[in-house]
């Protein structure tokens, strides 16, 4: 990924629910010259070389329905689609930091798990201190990995939901300005990198085959919206389908809850909607998948294909299958498999 210009986005800690005006995703707001950053930082360059160009595979779909294709994001260096996000968000900060010593930089972010995993690896390789706000429901394997990489972790009680995880990071950023918050839910680089990498790869892999629908689970909505923007530029008629947990759907008016949900995704509660997705609300269909269904589908998919997909991938697989069932066999539905699941989930599945 290379882009001319050197204007970078300065993440300002606006509240999550502040309006996200049209124009916020103007590419000039996240101009990133990853080549220049890579030249200065070999560890960043190495991570970038291993990133992306993930496989697009045909997956089991409904009999008599459309073909379902999925992009295998566990192939990224730290094992998830969030490796792309870590690379872009940290790249923007490194670009802005310039030639100053990396020891002066301190990175702060909240995460559902995958982004913290990716960022902690990049930061450890670079020698940049990292601090993550996570839910107390985070798996032991992740907490051990972060501790092993020297990252600092602040846990928020899972009953308070992901909304309070985000807000805790905002509170830290406001109170301790020495920490640079990446702010994945409002940082345009999160969408633009998905548009330029995942979306562009997908278009190349489709080889001119027009997809009827793009189905993606919503955490920040960066994947859904970024890839949608790329697809729409080439295939204007493509439908957008967002997927969130049935336990707290997108835009739910309910308060956040501590119920188990499939990974990395979910509504915020109190009617708060993910800023990127608000820009595409009128054009996006919403579906929900419960954790028990997604968890069972991990096992079913493994039985059918021998492949391990995570719970958000399983949710996307189920939702894409529902969309495909209502389309003719000549149609194509595309989706994404963000990761391969956690050791804890595979242990619970007894595999
Ligand atoms: C495993 C997993 N699936 C899906 C997502 C959703 O990605 P996005 O933030 O681009 O909406 C995430 C985000 O953290 C994730 O970790």
From TrEMBL:
Pfam annotation, one family: PALP
Ranges of Polar residues composition bias in the record: 1-10
Stretches for region Disordered: 1-27
Domain of life the protein comes from: Bacteria
Stretches with biased composition (Pro residues): 12-24
Keyword Transcription regulation attached: no
GO MF: transferase activity, transferring alkyl or aryl (other than methyl) groups
PROSITE patterns, sorted: CYS_SYNTHASE
Keywords: Pyridoxal phosphate
Domain Tryptophan synthase beta chain-like PALP intervals: 50-339
Keyword presence, Transmembrane: no
Cofactors demanded by this protein: pyridoxal 5'-phosphate
Organism, scientific name: Streptosporangium nondiastaticum
SUPFAM superfamilies with a match to the protein in the record: Tryptophan synthase beta subunit-like PLP-dependent enzymes
GO biological process per UniProt: cysteine biosynthetic process from serine
Protein name: Cysteine synthase
């Amino acid at each position: 990924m290379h882009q001319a210009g050197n204007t970078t986005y300065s993440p300002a800690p606006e509240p999550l629910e502040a309006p996200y005006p049209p124009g916020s995703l103007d590419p000039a707001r996240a101009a990133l010259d990853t080549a220049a950053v890579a030249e200065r930082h070999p560890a960043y360059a190495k991570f970038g070389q291993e990133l992306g160009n993930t496989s697009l595979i045909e997956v089991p779909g409904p009999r008599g329905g459309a073909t379902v294709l999925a992009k295998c994001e566990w192939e990224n260096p730290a094992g998830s689609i969030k490796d792309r996000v870590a690379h872009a968000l940290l790249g923007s900060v490194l670009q802005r930091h310039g030639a100053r010593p990396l020891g002066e930089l301190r990175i702060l972010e909240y995460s559902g798990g995958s982004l913290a995993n990716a960022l902690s690896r990049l930061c450890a390789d670079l020698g940049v201190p990292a601090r993550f706000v996570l839910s107390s429901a985070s798996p032991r394997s992740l907490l051990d990995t972060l501790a092993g990489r020297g990252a600092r972790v602040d846990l928020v009680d899972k009953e308070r939901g992901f909304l309070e995880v985000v807000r805790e990071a905002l509170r830290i950023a406001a109170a301790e300005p020495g920490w640079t918050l990446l702010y994945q839910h409002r940082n345009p680089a999160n969408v633009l990198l998905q548009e330029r990498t995942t979306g562009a790869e997908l278009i190349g892999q489709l080889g001119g085959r027009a997809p009827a629908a793009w189905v993606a689970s919503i955490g920040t909505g960066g994947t859904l919206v970024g890839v949608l923007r790329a697809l729409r530029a080439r295939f204007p008629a493509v439908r957008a389908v967002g997927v969130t947990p049935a336990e707290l759907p997108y835009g739910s008016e309910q308060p956040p809850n501590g119920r188990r949900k499939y990974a990395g995704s979910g509504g915020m509660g109190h009617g708060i909607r993910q800023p990127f997705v608000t820009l595409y609300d009128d054009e996006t269909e919403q579906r929900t998948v419960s954790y028990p269904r997604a968890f069972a589908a991990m096992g079913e998919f493994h039985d059918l294909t021998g492949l391990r997909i995570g719970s958000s991938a399983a949710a996307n697989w189920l939702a894409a299958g529902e969309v495909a069932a209502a389309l003719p066999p000549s149609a194509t539905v595309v989706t994404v498999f963000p990761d391969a699941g956690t050791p804890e989930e595979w242990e619970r599945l007894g595999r």
